């Protein structure tokens, strides 16, 4: 099996300069194998096809998880050891995989890894999360922050310093370093989620059997454009997929969620080695 990291980026009418910069960032790093640009846009883009990555034009918007699955299946067929699911609005320094790959190589019980993410301003993004309850998601979307501060602090695991390695039930799909062997067992993204909640669902399935860790020894910069808070259509899609998720896993009677979240909150932090 190749120890290189294959990468997939999903585009949907994404600015060309953003995709080009993302591919350039990846090429500055070692360990990178195939780079897949999976384009859900209606029209073929010859500029993307000329970037030297593997350009896959779907011709329709098949959804975020389904588009990544197109590339992940190729990684599985080609015997890749790791596959990175990555947003195009992320940048990072060269050498990041020189840290991540050896760490995952030496910890076979880790199925997925997420680095520390910061905004361009340097502020930390609180992407370590518990498995959500309906109240967690509805409160975040509908109520003022002053009324939900305590609930959100628990959901985003604020009791941890965000400077330590922790086992996180739900890691963000903006940058998911995935072990292909685990995907062969747990499955890929559930394509019933057009967009949103697919990362929660996959994290949960992986977390059942392996660790899914937050790894602050590496840092990425994430622009983080929350489309569902801007577009009414995307907000509706988010709510529909929330319902799909809770129909699948349980709304209020979800003993597994309570058990997993309790274990996550009770763990000891593992300080990064100097």
Automatic annotation (TrEMBL):
Classification via Pfam families: Glyco_tranf_2_3
SUPFAM superfamilies: Nucleotide-diphospho-sugar transferases
Domain of life assignment: Bacteria
Protein name: Glycosyltransferase family 2 protein
Highest classification ranks of the organism: Bacteria, Pseudomonadati, Bacteroidota, Bacteroidia, Bacteroidales
């Amino acid at each position: 099996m190749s120890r290189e990291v294959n990468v997939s980026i999903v585009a949907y009418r994404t600015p060309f300069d953003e995709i080009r910069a993302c591919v350039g960032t990846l090429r500055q790093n070692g360990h990178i194998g195939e780079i897949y640009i999976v384009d859900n846009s209606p029209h073929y883009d010859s500029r993307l096809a000329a970037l030297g990555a593997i350009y896959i034009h779907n011709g329709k918007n098949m959804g975020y998880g389904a588009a990544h699955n197109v590339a992940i299946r190729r990684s599985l067929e080609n015997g890749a050891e790791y596959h990175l699911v990555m947003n195009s609005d992320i940048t990072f320094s060269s050498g990041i995989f020189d840290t991540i790959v050896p760490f995952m190589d030496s910890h076979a019980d880790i199925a997925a890894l997420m680095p520390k993410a910061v905004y361009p301003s340097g502020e930390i993004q609180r992407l370590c999360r518990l498995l959500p309850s309906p109240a967690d998601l509805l409160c975040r979307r509908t109520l003022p922050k002053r009324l939900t501060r305590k609930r959100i602090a628990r959901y985003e695991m604020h009791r941890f310093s965000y400077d330590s390695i922790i086992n996180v039930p739900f890691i963000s799909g903006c940058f998911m370093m995935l072990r292909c062997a685990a995907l062969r067992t747990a499955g890929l993204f559930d394509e019933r989620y057009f967009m949103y909640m697919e990362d929660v669902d996959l994290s949960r399935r992986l977390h059942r059997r392996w660790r899914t860790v937050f790894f602050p020894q590496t840092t990425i910069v994430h622009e983080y454009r929350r489309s569902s808070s801007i577009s009414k259509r995307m907000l509706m899609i988010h709510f529909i997929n929330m319902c799909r998720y809770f129909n699948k896993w349980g709304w209020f009677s979800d003993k597994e969620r309570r058990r997993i979240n309790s274990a996550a909150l009770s763990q000891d932090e593992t300080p990064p080695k100097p």
